[in-house]
Every structure is written in structure tokens, then in C-alpha cells.
Amino acid sequence: MHNLRVIALSAGLVAGLSAAPPADAADAARGERLFRHCTACHSVVDETGTTLARGGRTGPNLYGVIGRHAGSVPGFHYSPSMVAAGQRGLRWNEADFLVYVKDATAFLRDYLDDPEARGKMAYKLRDTDKARDVWAYLERIAAP
Q1: Which residues, 6+ apart, have CB-to-CB distance to 49 below 8 Å?
Q2: What pTM does this model have?
Q3: How would you write the pLDDT of the chain (144 residues) with one tens digit per residue?
Q4: Cβ distance 37 to 123 under 8 Å?
């Protein structure tokens, strides 16, 4: 009887572990809470004009940012370095986003191989797990 309980408990534990998300899985709900810092400059407004995340206009609208060429929102005044990065093929993906949000200027200097390159984004999100969560949130609400 004792062995059956041990086997049943072990099976339950294994089933519970396999159903749990991986330890490094992004958390879009936490990303939504963290995105509140981003709304000081950014909003997310879809093509119909519906506001998905209310925020400032100092930064570009992040609707459609997933896969979009950097520096390409019509009417937004980007730094010349951001425009150059987009012209060289930078399309926003998770890997580049995670590095960019840590330090926009450092990212652009590395991407463009230009020590004079400058980004306009002053906010720095240095925690990779938090940045991954914000990306997961953007994937949920900002994809067309």
C-alpha cells in the first residue's frame, strides 16, 4: 500500500512538473505591469485608432512593433542612428529588443559599428527577465 502511494505521488509530481511552464518562460501579465514604465513615452494604438495601451507620444506607437523595421513609423522623428539601423535591416525581434532596452545607444553603436551613434530612448530596462516579459506583453497586444 505504501509503495502505491509513493508511485501515485511521484506520478502526480511528474505530471505537475510537465504541465508547469519552463522556468525561463516569459510572463505577459507581469510584462503588462512593467509596461506602465514604458507608457511615459509609448502608447499602443491599433490601425483603427483603438488605444490598447494609453501612453505618451515622446516615443513611437508600439502597435506593430513585432517584426517592424526600426525607425519606420510614419511621422515619428527618430534619431538618425535608429533610421540607419532600420535601413540596414534591423527588424524588431525578441533578441534585439532585449539588448536594445538595456541601453539604446550602446545597442545602436554596436549594431551600426559606429561609436558616434545615438539613440533617443533614455529609459534602461537592464533586467533580461523583465524585458522578456515586456516583449511577451507586446506580442500579445501589439501584433497586427
Answers
A1: none
A2: 0.81
A3: 444 444 444 444 444 444 444 546 799 999 999 999 999 999 999 999 999 999 999 999 999 999 999 999 999 999 999 999 999 999 999 999 999 999 999 999 999 999 999 999 999 999 999 999 999 999 999 988
A4: yes
Q: Measured between alpha carbons, how far is 70 from 129 in angstroms, rounded to an integer?
A: 22
Report which residue type is found at 19.
A
Pairwise CA distance, residues 39 & 57, whole Å: 9
Tell me the domains of the chain and their CATH numbers.
Answer: 23-141 (1.10.760.10)
Residue type, 51: T
CA atoms in the 13 A half-sphere facing the CB of 106: 12
**How far apart are the C-alpha atoms of 18 and 40, rounded to whole Å?**
39
In angstroms and rounded to an integer, the radius of gyration of the C-alpha atoms of the chain is 20
- C-alpha cell at position 101: 532596452
